[in-house]
From TrEMBL:
InterPro entries listed in its UniProt record: Aminotransferase_I/II_large (IPR004839), C-S_lyase_PatB-like (IPR027619), Class-II_PLP-Dep_Aminotrans (IPR051798), PyrdxlP-dep_Trfase (IPR015424), PyrdxlP-dep_Trfase_major (IPR015421), PyrdxlP-dep_Trfase_small (IPR015422)
Cofactor: pyridoxal 5'-phosphate
Keywords: Aminotransferase, Lyase, Pyridoxal phosphate, Transferase
Keyword Lyase attached: yes
Pfam families, alphabetized: Aminotran_1_2
NCBIfam families: C_S_lyase_PatB (TIGR04350)
RNA-binding found in the keyword field: no
Gene3D superfamilies: Aspartate Aminotransferase, domain 1, Type I PLP-dependent aspartate aminotransferase-like (Major domain)
Name of the protein in its database record: cysteine-S-conjugate beta-lyase
UniProt record similarity statement: Belongs to the class-II pyridoxal-phosphate-dependent aminotransferase family. MalY/PatB cystathionine beta-lyase subfamily.
Aminotransferase class I/classII large domain: residues covered: 57-384
Source organism of this protein record: Marinilactibacillus psychrotolerans
Amino acid sequence: MSQIFDEVIDRTKTNSVKWNSREELFGSATALPMWVADMDFRNSAQIRLALHKLIDEEILGYASPSNALLESIICWQKERHQMTINKKNLLFSPGVVGALAVCVQALTSPYEGVLIHDPVYTPFSSVVQSNNRRVYRTPLVIENGQYRMDYDHIEKSFKENSIKMFILSNPHNPGGRIWSKEELILLTDLCVQHEVILISDEIHSDLVYTDSSIYSPVSLKEEYKKWVVTLHSASKTFNLAGAKLAFYIVYNDKLKEKIETVQHETEQNSISTFGMVATEAAFSKSKEWHKELMEYLEENRNLVADFFDKEFPEVFYMKPESTYLFWFDASSLHIESDKLTETFIQKGDIALNAGAAYGESSKQFMRLNFACPRSVLEEGLQRIKTVFNSVKH
Ligand SMILES: Cc1ncc(COP(=O)(O)O)c(C=O)c1O
């Protein structure tokens, strides 16, 4: 099966953002793209079959969520995340970031405070800002090589900045951290106590490596359901970002009503037929593919970790417990943070994400996407080696 993931697919002649924006974003049309979070793997055979069937047998008119889609989400979330969902708890969106924007508009008012981690996935701050709310950040502290939340700081910010919403990347992008049950309880208890709505973005929550258990706050205490909105999509795990389908899980009817109002106001209440069919085929028919994917990704992750251990042991990195993103500290290069991306392009022709985009505290970090065939990853690591060697010597 791993041969499927070994196949190198030429994406340069498609409209892939990852491959076709290289010149515009990185100034090099030949850079090896290991940046934005999509995978260079073909979709599962079951997804492709379902989409072929759709084209052959149906008409692409306006659609509403099918029963099969709803059931596939309900079963997947029950099996993997111990969540009991009713059909009425589900709402749809073209994307998780779009859903985040709707939540910000629906559940907070202009100029109110929204708290996010530093560092965290870049659109968390931009979505809040572009909707005229105030962004506050709470630092993630590195302890024993991993990010930990600073609960005193969070509580202080809740009080001082009258925070109305906390947006959590669960698990954490870019650090790949899976928050433990205890950590989620501490955070969500604080949210409940201070009447802060918790948005739990769980888009990476099915990209989990062996020996790690992942939790959703709503599965931990019944009372959390009043305060938490969960956002999810099959798009990261099954490589469907272009199919444009994500979903909200909302238990609180009042929050759900507010979200639906903004969905109507912004005409975001329709659903993509392609996304619906692909998501259903992913959740209900692609379990074997998913299992094999995780085995392949785990080997890729270990390869990157072994590379740094062997070649550059001075480099600090966070071995991800989830996601296909490798977060490493490039401080040993002694390059100013705003020159890091450029240096990786100039010396190695490799496109990585700069840590500065995720927060002040991670300016010296770089993020590498290892969801690609092994031969491509090996080429990428050679290029990184060239960068480190040419800057050091
Ligand atoms: C934490 C997180 N949320 C959301 C997204 C994007 O979601 P969508 O493409 O559905 O808007 C990403 C993409 O990498 C992500 O890492």
